[in-house]
Write a structure and sequence with these properties.
Layout lengths: L1 E9 L2 E9 L8 H11 L6 H18 L17 E3 L7 E5 L2 E5 L2 E2 L8 H12 L3 H24 L12 H5 L1 E2 L9 H6 L3 E4 L2 H24 L1
Antiparallel strand pairs: 1-2, 3-6, 3-7, 4-5, 5-8
Helix pairs in contact: 1-2, 3-4
């Protein structure tokens, strides 16, 4: 499953979406999906080719890096990599409509039974969030896990529980979790926060979001 982010501008239209693409799906092609998306959202017909192009570019980029198949890797459970998904602490930062969700938590990037989709389904249900949040949460997790896995591959890491020699990357990887509980101070920073944004806050958040997307793109190219 490959996390895909769409950012399409065409004439007066701006289309944004996130999704997870199953590269082994033999039924729905990229072109067919793009056409259905244009029809569903009543977008101009030429946008179908733009959507297909962005999806294909990201799938090609994903295939260009030989990411590890977690099911085929033997990892020392005492030294398993625990991925802290964002260095700044806000792992989830999602805005849908006027609702803004932020949260942070640890995620084991090499555990085969960890499913972002199942986690997102349970997480969203507990908070009373709809389907759009479920897909956005799953995408956000996969996108960030993918980023760390690609970074580890880029520095030649063997995914064997050994030392990570890149200083910046090593600082972003947490040690194994031995105690599930948190202190009061830690708990205050590791909990879902759901706010309703005003129109001014939504505009400000949109500007910050665009800056963050540009930063992530630069990081991706650098790694």
């Amino acid at each position: 499953l490959v996390p895909v982010r769409l950012e399409i501008e065409y004439e007066s239209y701006r289309f944004r979406d996130t999704l997870v693409w199953n590269v082994n799906d033999p039924v729905v092609t990229v072109e067919r999906f793009a056409q259905l998306t244009v029809e569903d959202f009543q977008l101009p017909a030429p946008m179908a080719s733009l959507i297909a192009k962005q999806i294909q570019e990201q799938l090609t980029e994903h295939k260009a890096v030989d990411l590890p198949d977690a099911m085929n890797i033997v990892v020392d459970r005492e030294e398993i990599l625990q991925g802290k998904l964002e260095e700044d602490g806000d792992d989830l930062d999602i805005v849908i409509g006027s609702r803004h969700l932020t949260d942070q938590f640890e995620w084991d990037i090499m555990e085969t039974t960890n499913s972002p989709e199942l986690f997102a389904d349970s997480y969203a249900s507990e908070l009373g969030l709809g389907g759009e949040f479920k897909s956005a949460i799953a995408h956000d997790i996969r996108e960030q896990v993918n980023m760390y896995q690609r970074a580890l591959v880029a520095i030649g890491h063997n995914f064997d529980g050994g030392t990570i020699f890149d200083d910046d990357l090593r600082q972003a990887i947490l040690p194994p979790v031995s105690i599930a509980g948190r202190t009061a101070d830690q708990a205050a920073n590791c909990m879902p926060i759901l706010n309703n944004l005003s129109e001014g806050e939504m505009e400000s958040n949109e500007k910050e979001r665009e800056k963050e997307l540009k930063r992530k793109k630069r990081q991706g190219r650098a790694r």
